Give the backbone structure.
Amino acid sequence: MNDFADAFSLAGEMLINLDAGLMEIVSLSLQVSFTAVLLASFIGLPLGAAVALFRFPGRTLIIVVLNALMGLPPVVVGLMVYLVLSRAGPLGVFGLLFTPEAMIIAQILLITPIIAALTRQVVADLWQEFEEQLRSLGAGPLRALPTLLWDGRFSLITVILAGFGRASAEVGAVMIVGGNIDHVTRVMTTSIALEVSKGNLALALALGIVLLTLSTSINGAAFIIGENNKKNHVQ
């Protein structure tokens, strides 16, 4: 019991004093996740909107694939990226394996389908609601796209937050392609797994508290944005 109390006490001290090792891990985690979400948003938002508004051969298949990929196992993504980036792989010449860039690639593959699939649903609902009005003004799907994205901006922010939540909590893929190398690719989730196995509960708890706070903040922000969006539509 005293060991747990000491671990919590030490974890609190590390957080209060902004321990250098702790902050380095947190900083790298946020850097990797923010970069991955930004790039995934550039891909997923227009892709989801295009699938929602335009009719083309294979559209149904794309929708099914996007929805299926939302539950893609992280370890499978990690394995795929590992094989592509390994020395014998097609992109091995770039030497990206066991770097933050490899972790970003893995997270992009994980969260792009989430952002694209949720964006498709948001834009499809808005198009169904405003299609008649927009067409009467001479706006087809292409011209209506900016208007729909702007009208759905709060819902789309929630979509992006969902992607960030998935990225920041990911452990399997980043462990495989990053290697959990100290001062290079060690992020919060992989560090927690390592420190628990080593018996270093203080650092694991401190990182767990940061991760839990981050997750709670993301979910809280998504809820508040969603509620405000509902109020705006009612008004």
User: Anything to note?
Assistant: The CA atoms of residues 36 and 107 lie 6 Å apart. The chain has ten helices and no strands.
